Amino acid sequence: MFNKLSLHISVVVTVLLCLISSLISSADENPIPRLLVDTYRFEFGEVEEGIELKHTFKLTNGGTGLLLLNGAHSSCGCTVPKLTVNKLKPGESTDLLVVVDTAMKQGRLIKTVSVLSNDPSSPNLKLYLSMNVKNPHVGLSEEGRAKIFTSDKCNSCHVAKGNGLFGKDLYEADCAMCHGKQGLGAIGPQLLGPYENSAFKNGMETIASNGSPTHRSMPGFLVDAGGPLSKQQIDSILKYLADVSKQRYYPGKLMPKK
Q1: What are the residues facing 71 on neighbouring strands?
Q2: What is the DSSP letter of 126?
Q3: CA distance linking residue 258 with residue 242, whole number of Å
Q4: 258/40 Cα distance (integer angstroms)
Q5: pLDDT tens digits, residue range 91-111?
Q6: Model confidence at 116: pLDDT above 90
Q7: What span, in angstroms and rounded, lies between the C-alpha atoms of 102 and 81?
Q8: How many CA atoms lie within 13 A of 225 on its CB side?
């Protein structure tokens, strides 16, 4: 009885050892690359508009096979990744330099870089760079604030006439001088468009509230940005423009007057 039990145990152990040996042998025959990175997210913090930011990610092959880096691309043209090598042996590392241009940016931003490789577990590895681009209109000294808010002559046209007004009346008092009647444009651009599109509407609200990141001649009209208007007043202007747009605008063109 004992001898039979011992024989049975011996057979089981032998089978297990053969199985483990087979797995090890199989792993050696099929080496697998692994793409590792020192960090998946990098925070630049608060930065100036109009500058270039640079960060270097460290890429490492943590696997047993040859790692092929098939390229890197970003979520937009302002973010440029640069790989210096396209092959990494096990244990080797390389740098991935990423340059972000903050020109014409404003507020909280997150940029994405994708690294393509033959790593079966993550063939499209995502890396993230985040930053907060300063609003050039916020926190200005009295001397640096927009002239239309500080000069008595300008203030009388762009601020005083709109005190306490909303909607169409407020637009005609504060905005029409630059952007024309019904938002059709004058010395400033026309303001009609697809306000039912949330991205378009949010963009228009950001510029109206905080100012244009590209044209300092368009300051922020929100109280928090040094302007004269409450959020409710700015919302009423946007609603008026949305209503006009429904009557006068279709994608990319203005409807003819009736």
Answers
A1: 116
A2: E
A3: 19
A4: 56
A5: 999 999 999 988 767 778 899
A6: yes
A7: 15
A8: 26
pLDDT of the residue at 26: 47
Domains of the chain, CATH where assigned: 35-133 (2.60.40.10), 147-254 (1.10.760)
Token pair for 158: 């762009």
Q: What single-letter amino acid sits at 94?
A: T
pTM across the whole model: 0.54
pLDDT tens readout for residues 4-22: 555 556 555 555 555 555 5
- Cα–Cα distance between 45 and 49 in angstroms, integer? 13
Element (H, E) at 4: helix 2-29
Number of residues written out for the chain: 258
Q: What is the CA radius of gyration of the chain?
A: 30
Give tens-digit pLDDT for 122-159.
Answer: 999 999 999 998 866 565 555 545 556 766 756 776 67
The pLDDT value given to residue 254: 63
167: its two tokens: 């909607």
Strands (DSSP E) found in the chain: 35-37, 41-47, 52-61, 67-74, 79-83, 87-88, 93-101, 107-117, 124-133, 249-250, 253-254
Terminal Cα-to-Cα distance of the chain (whole angstroms)? 106
